[in-house]
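Forwarding these from the shared drive since the link keeps breaking.
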Amino acid sequence: MEEPQWSSPGLDVATGRYPLSVERHVMRMVDHLVPGVTTVTPHARYYTLHGLVAAHADAAGLTAPAAQELLRRAEVALAAVSFAHHSPAHEWLPRAHGADALAHRLRSGSVSVTESAVPGKGGYVGNAWGFWGPYAKSETVLGILNPGPMPVPGPQLDGTAVRDGLGELLDLAAEETLRVEDIAPLGARLCVCAGGERPDGTWLAHLLCRPDAAGTGPHSMTRQQTIRLLARIVDTHHVAHFAWDIGSVLAFGEFLATDAVADGIDVAPVWRGVVLRNYSVGAWRRLWSWLVAQVEGMVPVGELADRFAEELPDVTVAAFLSSLPATHSTTGVPLPAEHDLRLTDEPLPVTELRVLAVGARRADELSGRVRDAFLGPRGVELGPEWVGRWLDERRPIGLRDAARDLVHILVARSQRVALAKARRRPDGSLWLPTRLEKRGGWLYRTSQEGRGDVGLRLWQLGAVLATCGVLRYHDQHWSVTGLGRDLVA
């Protein structure tokens, strides 16, 4: 070394996801129940578009770079057509991927396909393969594509259907410039909302819904049963908000046991257990987010514990538990205790601690497959059984004192989780994924924690089914289409 130099930082504290690691069981169960749809795949037409690109690339013998350019240009064309066709009637459906990035150019009346398709800054998306990445696993699970470094036709791909439905996009992708007024009339055939009335959408609907569809993965039957269950709920209830309204039916009430169709669907009790467990998962996430938000500057752990305690009523743990709402009817049917608690005006820490206590009570009330799906791996820290034991052991003491202990438990767990995810980089520095850093007995945060619930993919599945013709959203509510009735009957 010729002169002194600065070394690389020894520790890089960066934002991380799932700081308490309470989500794993729910996420694993949802992956089993809804294979082929994820939280980032809301559009049926990207499944068929990527199939179209794969079929064309295979037939034309395109190299990977050429296929990549075709895919990006085709996604730009789809975003442009969908932007031109967008209307208030489509507000329920997310915009086509990349449409927001192109919105400024599209509002000017035209867009350069070549400039927009270039990866990086100024393009419609930075990823070299566009939006294929988020959809690739789902398309492979469904058999639309085969695994590989570029889109390759899979055993379930119907090349004729995707060409008949979306083939015009390849012509648009070959254009240098697209004028909004010229492509607007094409929206009725090519928009992300229009797949339900096109051959590519009908083919995808059969692939998703038919129990006799071969080669769609080891868990295809669970997906098909899930779709049948959701369609039955839509057909028998007023569903305005897809995930919210259907989630309530799945979690609470007698419908799953008394409806002749729902009672015969094997995954129905599994869904009940998963949705109920997700209330507890969401409670931990909300509670932890609230705690992290209290850390301004350097805060001692004990002071954070005191802030939490001050939000709670000055009662014993036993009195707190006795104040919980009823969780089941006289016939053993789950009542919407968690749902109702979150409609109250109590402080967030009180509400979410009550939701956790309700979940702990359900561990002893549920039975059979509902209980198995609710509990998952047994005895894990912060799981419903753990919460139940923790509360029972502290019944005689004050709730505020118990809450102080809980803060220390959560801070210690967050540090263990972050260290378990930490990675040493090639330059010797340490990457630590956490938003809340602990030094000695002091805490400081680098950013706020999210508090949203774990996605159960219900909304995304509903959107995919609506854009391939199985469901329909009209006049502020959902319904089953004629095609949907034929496929899920």
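-- next protein --
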Amino acid sequence: MNHDTVAVVLDLSANGIGIIRSLGRRGIPLYAFDTERKYKIGKTRYANCGICPDPKTGESDLLALLIQLSESLPKKPVLFAGSDEFVYFISKHRHELSNYYHFLLPEHDLIEAVLDKRLTAKLAEKHQIPSPKTFIVNNEAELDQLIHNMSFPCILKPVFGHEFRKKLSKKAIIMENADQLRKEFPFYQQFGELLLQELIPGQEERIYQVGTLFDDNLQLIGLFMGQKLNQFPAYFGAGALVKSVRNEEVIEKGVSFLKALGFKGISVAEFKRDPRDGQLKFIEINARTWLWHSLSGRCGVDLSYLYYLLLTKQNPEPKLTQTEGIKWIYLVRHYLSSREKRKREKLTWYQWLRSLKGKKEYALFAWDDPLPFFRSAFSHLINSWKNSRQIKKMETKLTQEDD
């Protein structure tokens, strides 16, 4: 295979590092960019790393940076995005960027739909895909009207999850009863638009993700799936401990849904099996590589590399089968999530250590590129401490208001 085309990765989180290591270890030349804070944590020896403007507040500057980089190279590079913000930026500027980069994305309205949870729910409804009941809440007056139709516990979720998580490290908040919801809604509302969603019961083991790579003609080039075992933040978050598995029902539902929607390029669909009726319920879609996608390479289906070969017109052979039973571990997140669960469940540290057994792929730890692991671990521990202080302040404030 020819590896002389440069790849440019926008993202230096663990997701982006997974892309970079997959390509860099094959000798593919790489540039990687992210905003200053994430750059400092994730810069890696496998890429020429740099700081870039924020894709939301510095669009024109980021566009100029990417055009200038492409013009300095002998031929059009392949462009990867590892976060929702960068996916949206590329999609929004796709017509201009396509003159300088190779990339493959679904239509822009689909990108917008999967970033806005209100529109995502409508997609599932339109295609008759079972999913949790979802209610839009714009203000406290609407909350009072909806609260009588809700069953508890339920979930309070941000409409735009990637924006919400920048301000508060939470993907969803469990509301045990109507009183808690009324009390805490104003606090969470300050961080962004919110919706209420039915809680699908059951542990993380009931959650599956199906990743696909479709070419421009919607032919399936890559297929990979896994089962979540732990999440960060605890209970509602991204994978912290994941195992590669293959389930034909999940694959059929995920692949058919993504193909029907027209999800060209790399994407992933998440489902949770509802113990009440045994049905798989659709949760969300990401129009990009996802956090634990690097496990695909360990299991014989390297989606990042397949994408590179596809975009450089090297006609990769489809990879639709995988090795099962290998774990992916984001060590610091698995630790922090398990520590939180010990407060609510009978989880012992012996059980946690046993979860590390078996064949595994680490999110960041690597002997040939160790610094991203140590910088990330330190950052997570500091942020965990700050977040716990923020939550305590919120609880204190709410208690004082009750008094």
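The mean pLDDT is 92. The radius of gyration is 21 Å.

- D.
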